[in-house]
Structures are given as structure tokens and as C-alpha cells.
Structure prediction request, 244 residues.
Amino acid sequence: MLGCGSSVGSPVLGRDIKGVHQKDWRTRSSLFVTIEEVNILIDTTPDFRQQALANNVRNIDFVLYTHSHADHTHGIDDLRIFSYIKKDKINCFANKFTIEEIKKNFSYIFNKKNISGRPRLDLREITSSFIEQGVEIVPLPIKHKNWDILGYKINNFAYITDCSFIPDETLSKIENLDLLVIDALRYSKHDAHLSVDEAILIAKKVGAKRTILTHMGSDLKYSELLGYLPKGIEPGYDGLVVNL
Ligand SMILES: [Zn+2]
Ligand SMILES: [Zn+2]
Prediction:
């Protein structure tokens, strides 16, 4: 878990940082998944460079984008070094809308006339499950307020962030997982994100063996959540490693 913070991170800029618990220092939400020596990055947050250093990320085989919001994409330029390391373009997968937004927001990367000083990326549209470098990626369509965005399932694990609603068809794809990492912005309801209680309900409904909360706002305290959450559900923290 490279980061598990909300869009502004935690603690929020401008606030008093005295006494903030180490596990409540959260960078923006992102995951790094290694499977059979294939390294997969989910989202490039504005904190991506520091996350990659903190977690000794040495190379990236491909990237999965959940959606185009700034907190999930604005570290995209730091893929530059990883495309040098790979000596090739890095495939970046996303749905059609996310691809259009990324191309618009980072036009310098995709402008064919500009060939140096930019990451070499190949944006690829996801329409259904696919296999990349031997790893099956199952896209999980979800709602993020009025946006259609993607979560991802890889083997017996799923990642769902920035979620306000999960359609039944997607729920049926995430039953009985070994691990579910899911959005939980705050205790109270929010129109673009799941609350803590909504995340708990979904985790119970789909029968995940272990659930880890992510995209947490700064009002959610790690130590308080440990006491609040039912068995099998826990708050994430930056640098958390899970072996499956
Ligand atoms: Zn977000
Ligand atoms: Zn978002």
C-alpha cells in the first residue's frame, strides 16, 4: 500500500501536525502489486515519487488507472524514469473516459512532436478482462458520484477506491475474496465516496476474508478505527505490505 490518504492527504496542509500518529500520515491512495515478478502500479499520485522511494520500487511493468482525478494521476511525470529503466513504453490501462481526460490534462506527454523529457507511455483502453504479461486483470466498473470509473480484481484480491456505488454485476465479481481494499473516506456520508459504515456493509456482503480501508480522510484515526471496525476489517497505512 503506497498510500491510503484522501485527495488532500493526511494531515491536511495548514493544520497543526503536533501529535499526529505516524500511521495517520497518509499520502494519496495508490497500490503496488507484485505477482510472479510482474510489478503493477495502480494510479500515479502526486506523492508517487516519494512513495516509490519509500517502498524501494525499482521497476514498473504496467500501470492501471482507476480514474483521472488529480490525486490519482498527477505523479504521472515520474513514470519518465521508469520508462527509461524499462527502455520501452509503459502500458497504462484505463477506461475510455479516463484515457480522454489523461490525454487532455497531460497533453505534453502525448504530443507526438515533443519526443524528449517526458514519460513514454502507451494508454490502452480497457473494455473487458485482459491478460498483460501473464497476469489476468479484471476491471470492476463502479460509480464515483456521476463518473463511471474502475476498480480492479487480480486473482483473489480486489482494489476499489473512490467509490460511491457498486453495481450488482461488480458485486458478484468480488465475492469471497481473500483481500478487499476499499474506499472509506470518513464516518459521515459523502456523495462521491463510501463512508466507513458503507465499506463495512459491502465487505460483509461480499464475504471478504480480510478487508483493508483506504482513501481515508484525516479525521479517521488509525487507533480509533482499530477499536471501531469489526473482525476482519482494518484501516490501511502507508507502507503496509500484504502477502497473499
Ligand atoms: Zn481520490
Ligand atoms: Zn476521485
Notes: The first strand starts at residue 31 and ends at 35.
